[in-house]
Specification:
It is a single chain. The chain has 8 helices and 5 strands, in the order H-H-E-E-H-E-H-E-H-E-H-H-H. The protein is mainly alpha-helical and 179 residues long. The protein has a domain of 105 residues: 3-Layer(aba) Sandwich (Rossmann fold), CATH 3.40.50. The strands form 2 sheets. It has a 3-stranded parallel beta sheet with strand order 3-4-5, with helices on both faces. A two-stranded antiparallel sheet has the order 1-2. It starts with 7 loop residues before the first helix and ends in a 9-residue tail after the last helix.
Length: 179
């Protein structure tokens, strides 16, 4: 027997949803539909966007209202300089009550943890990545890079990094199992 998906109206009946959100839901219905598989289809024409009201700000004093805490994963591929701004963003989000995981290279694990954020290893070596980028600064790699087989190696590394980014969103732990 197939599981049924909750409808937007069934979700709206939840008593934890403040009354102010019900009026915003009516406005949202003019531009969005919820499909049976849980996908939200948006019709964002300029005319429809004009109908959409600004969502109400959360108010903690409302009975039954709870602050929204998002599980946030920030992916950073690159150097220490690429990572540093996202540590600041992550710390700010964490201070607002959101659990924050910074998914990046293993070389930066200590830096992430020292700043009080959760770490996840996405793989890849930032030094090798930067060396490849310096050697191949243009849109197309040099011919000697093609001959050396570096492109295939770089593609495998990027495949591992992309897989690590996905795993950081769905797995527990820090991604270092098997490293």
């Amino acid at each position: 027997m197939a599981a049924t998906q909750p409808t937007a109206d069934a979700l709206l009946d939840n008593r934890a949803i403040p009354a102010r959100l019900q009026s915003w839901k009516k406005s949202l219905d003019s531009v969005a539909t919820l499909s049976g598989c849980g996908r939200l289809d948006l019709n964002l024409t300029e005319q429809n966007l004009a109908k959409l009201e600004k969502p109400p700000a959360p108010a903690l004093e409302e009975e039954g209202a709870a602050p929204v805490h998002l599980n946030i994963v920030i992916h950073v591929i690159g150097s220490r300089g690429d990572l540093q701004p996202f540590i600041v963003i992550g710390k700010t989000l964490k201070a607002d009550g959101h659990p924050v995981r910074l998914a990046t290279h293993l070389a930066f694990r200590d830096m992430v943890k020292e700043n009080g954020l959760e770490f996840f290893n996405i793989g890849g070596n930032p030094q090798q990545l930067m060396m490849f980028m310096v050697k191949n600064a243009g849109l197309l790699p040099e011919f000697k890079t093609l001959q050396s087989g570096a492109i295939q190696h770089h593609r495998r590394d990027m495949g591992d990094i992309i897989s690590g980014c996905w795993r950081s969103c769905v797995e527990t732990g820090d991604g270092t199992q098997g490293c």
